[in-house]
User: What shape does this take?
Amino acid sequence: MQKRFTKINDSINAIDGLKCWGIKEGKNGLGIVKCEGKVSGVFTTNRIKAAPVLITAKHVRKGRFKGLVVNSGNANAFTGEKGIENAKRMAEILASKLSCKPDEIAVCSTGVIGRQLEMEWIESKIEEVFVKLENSRQAAKNFAKAITTTDRFLKEYAVEVDSAVIAGVAKGAGMIAPSMRSATMLAFLFTDANLDKTEMDELLADAVERSFNVATVDGDTSTNDTVLLVSTGKKKVGKELFGKALTEVCFQLAKMIVKDGEGATKVFEVQVRNAKDDRDAFKAAKAVANSLLVKTAIFGCDANWGRVIAALGYSGIELTENISLWFENGAEKVCLIDKGEPTGCEDEASEFLRENDDFKIIIDLHTGDGEGYAMGCDLTYDYVKLNAEYTT
Amino acid sequence: MQKRFTKINDSINAIDGLKCWGIKEGKNGLGIVKCEGKVSGVFTTNRIKAAPVLITAKHVRKGRFKGLVVNSGNANAFTGEKGIENAKRMAEILASKLSCKPDEIAVCSTGVIGRQLEMEWIESKIEEVFVKLENSRQAAKNFAKAITTTDRFLKEYAVEVDSAVIAGVAKGAGMIAPSMRSATMLAFLFTDANLDKTEMDELLADAVERSFNVATVDGDTSTNDTVLLVSTGKKKVGKELFGKALTEVCFQLAKMIVKDGEGATKVFEVQVRNAKDDRDAFKAAKAVANSLLVKTAIFGCDANWGRVIAALGYSGIELTENISLWFENGAEKVCLIDKGEPTGCEDEASEFLRENDDFKIIIDLHTGDGEGYAMGCDLTYDYVKLNAEYTT
Assistant: This one.
């Protein structure tokens, strides 16, 4: 029988030896995690990389981790030499408190682009947070809260796998479309599993590909996106099983981020089946999940499947009109196109949309055996409101 | 001295021998143009092509044109064999009235995807419109109105070039982002200039590339997009001058379509200068013009230039932080970044945005001599409203 992993109602405090804390004051926040172990990271592919990304990527390559400091409210991006100095300074301050080297510290920032950090505030808050570091559920919650910007809810997820734990905390909202991704996504994963650095790098890259990257389009990342995996290395776990559990934690966090899409009221998964190959399936699923017309139709509970077809058409994949398309949740299924024939069930499907805020759009292309999926959310009035009024 | 072309306050009725008419009843419309000449066409690259696109592309390859029939309200797309039959039937009905071959007729449709045409209505309206065909300004307006869907205003533009005329009429709204392009764009250009079919094909492809295609992203076209150029061949014009004038007519029509972006209140041109090459400049300009965060910031009159920087960063081009960025209109200029240094003029720039609804965002990358531009409009509450409620 296959060994599995199970969700636990805990967060990063489930990691033995980890301590954390965070504070949030208006739009600004600061959080610290203290934890000793190995570290892997995946960073934004945006050509304009924020100062903390440049610094942390360098530190993570060395592989040793002692602590993490994150500020929200200011991205420290497009801030030139002074930005680099400030990011280094954040690492130095925490390193001196932890009596470790600065390159054992990770630094992350999220918020408005193009403004210098207020280092006095940062320094005083590191001081304030540091003395409160502890291992408790409340401490984990405070950290999760401290790193948020436009997030409407905290994003935490943890699983038990064998005797080990993987726990993650993330921030991010508004990955509504390719060009949306200026809203930074940060995710911090901690585990007590024993893995070597090469395994960690490989498993993290794979998990990110199957989770955060299906909630967006390749390469369209913000200046600050960062995912870190820290392992304290105390427990033994099989590599394959660990990889599956890690992917599950990342997937659930990514789904929370999509669900918290700015102004979103509905989250949906697009599954494409029987495409020419997996690559086509993936492209098709992303095109549908990112279509503004599909997103607004779903907000309006309008089963306008023509917009799905148009998105498939411009996705660039191989395609015939022999398409099947249906909506489903765990219990119910409404078919809109059956092997190229419209079923005329628009009313039933619109009813389904009114009743469900988390569902799947399944598309069968009947051309091969490729499979792929993507996640999306609806586009609403509140999305426009939030983004028209963000900095002012 | 260079010979130029001048805008005239006329429309397709300026073409000698051309007759047209159109009617609009609620969401449905039907328009006919009668005109004899050569024809070139550019069609959607969407893999799912509407029946009228398949039929008209075939007819246009033969190069002879006698008439055009367009219906709005139903796209006749994803309608299988019956859709093809209906598109053919539309051509046949008009051909029999014009005593010509069906392959001398162009057929276009725009509207909802996935529903069969109501051919009884189409037949009776062809009848009704045909008897009213005439050469007048009012007839041209009625045709322009008949082909609209969510358009808020008619799109007509004409120039005189030497002794010849180029006149265009278009429909389309809502090219707000890549995935937006399910809103069909139709443009019909008529001229009395004397050109051979090869020249027409070349000049039309070039003009479309520099106009309609800078208002969107390559390949993200609707199932029905069609641009036709018909030449009656009575007047002599130099090829180069004609090409410039044709591009101008297409550019102005494209700008009207962007200005009529669903719910849009502002239209802007993004000009990228001194990129590595033209291709990079074009990519960068499109990424900025299509960024939802840039669009919502402009709607909110918020000079949040960090979003422009983020879009440049994920556009995939070569880039340093040595960027200059300013807004300008004919009279005024507000600089936000000067060679990598933020100027701190956000308040002045926000004021500029409040006072201008048609302006340029200029980006100088200081890395080469590539130039490119794109057009965009803001993203508003009304965009969401229009698209959430379109079919219901």
Notes: The domain at 5-259 of chain A is CATH 3.60.70.12 (L-amino peptidase D-ALA esterase/amidase).
